[in-house]
Amino acid sequence: MSRNGMNGRDQKLTLDGLERLLDAYGGDLSRWPERLVVDAQALIGSSNDARRLHREAQALDRLLTKASAPDPERLDKLAERIMAAAGREGLAARPDAGGKREAAAGARIIPMPVNGRANGGRKVLEPQAGAGPAPSAIRPSRGRWFGDVNWQAAAALAASLAFGVAIGVSDIAPTATYNVASLVQPAASDAETVLSELQLDAWNGLDEEQI
Amino acid sequence: MRTALARTGDTSPAANGVSSEDGQLLARLAEGDAVAFRKVVDRHLPLVLGVARRMLRDEAEAEDVAQEAILRLWRNASGLELGPGGFKPWLRRVVTNLCIDRVRSSRHLSVVEEVPEEAEPARQLDGLVDRDLSRRVDEALKALPDRQRQALTLFHFEGLSQTEVGATLGISDEAVESLLARGRRSLKAALKEEWRDLLPGSGDPA
After folding, report:
1. Do A24 and B184 touch (CB under 8 A)?
2. Residues linked to residue A110 through DSSP beta bridges, in sequence order
3. Count of alpha carbons within 13 Å of A202, Cβ hemisphere only?
């Protein structure tokens, strides 16, 4: 008998051969090598013993599907562990990836308001609950912070202060100071505008006390 | 459940037949998009961990290997070439190779350990019976020699063809058939009562 359980002379599949093939490939004939399927089907169709062997193989197939799946709780913990590990690797693993790679450490990406509106797809990072200790990698990098997100607002704030100082020590009225600051306000966020106003008020107050 | 191994060649997702969603995710991964990475983790970790758990006998080792396989996707996304099956064949191949390496280098993994208890107790008798059956199947699988278990995992659980299993394990088709036959024969003997309960007419609805 050949390796595939064929009778040597007429190449018919024997019962022993069928049992060996069922042992190897199981009861689902669609998973078998194509060259063996026709003979197997013929034997199963013509022999009670062959049908019994086939049913037993199918039963073992069904039993194997009972093997346990990963526990969902462990799966969740592992997913968090992987996100944290990816975050720890950060940019070191892929220098071409830019600042976005920083987000991996259990962080989620949310739009940040700039100038009172969403920032058009730019991303900042916020630690996610349950993600474990947030690695330093999730903080915005220096290049990112000063690179493209807030330089306009910072410049506007600096300009406001410079005007405030220059005009505050001059004889121009506080009202005029406020108006000059308002001219650069559109480039700054609401919070920064409030800060500008507070600083101007404080400067004016200091002027009055000193005088 | 049949799949094909990832093929190399044209890197364009559309050109090489990668599903559009996997292609888009890959492009985002290549840019370092952590949200896309999280989506890939959620979608494919069960598959990766499932393969690792069946190929290794140690739950913690399986988790380590699953983590490494997924992280390799993260690290290599920009240079990755996916085949028509998207991420799955690539991940399956990586996790399989990692498992084989682990088994080769860490013989202590052949120690059979108990399947860890799940956190929540089963509330119904059916659940208890199913879980007990799962435990017995798991134990029988873990008791198999490494190569037999690897071949069974790839062929029966992951749906690889005989030739694909041979290519993955680096053995001939004949050797695959032999490993599968010996493995299933051992399972058939070890789980005789269990599979007999599943025969038609045995009274078990399954």
Report:
1. yes
2. A124
3. 7
CA distances from A193 to A153, A160, A182 (A): 9, 9, 8
Six-digit token string for A47: 């022999």
Rounded CA separation B41/B54 (Å): 19
Q: Is the CB of A71 less than 8 angstroms away from the CB of B118?
A: yes
Residue window 27-56, chain B: list those with CB within 8 Å of chain A: 30-35, 37-38, 41-42, 45-46, 49-50, 53-54
- Burial of residue A53 (CB within 10 Å: 0-12, 13-18, 19+) is buried
pTM listed for this prediction: 0.58
| Interface membership of A110 toward B (CB under 8 Å) | no
B34 neighbors A86 (Cβ within 8 angstroms): yes
pLDDT tens, A59-94? 999 999 888 888 889 999 999 999 999 988 764 445
Q: pLDDT band at A31, cuts 50/70/90?
A: very high
**Residue A203: what residue type?**
W
- Asked if pLDDT for residue A162 goes beyond 80, the answer is no
Q: What is the largest CA-CA distance in chain B?
A: 57
ipTM over 0.85: no
Which of B 163-202 lie inside 8 A of A, CB atoms? 173-174, 177-178, 180-181, 184-185, 187-188, 191, 194-196, 198-200
- Of the pLDDT bands very low, low, confident and very high (cuts 50, 70, 90), residue A154 is low
**Is the CB of residue A56 less than 8 Å away from at least one CB of chain B?**
yes
Looking at chain A, the number of H-run helices and the number of E-run strands are 8, 2
Query: Distance (Å, rounded) from C-alpha B85 to C-alpha B156?
Result: 18
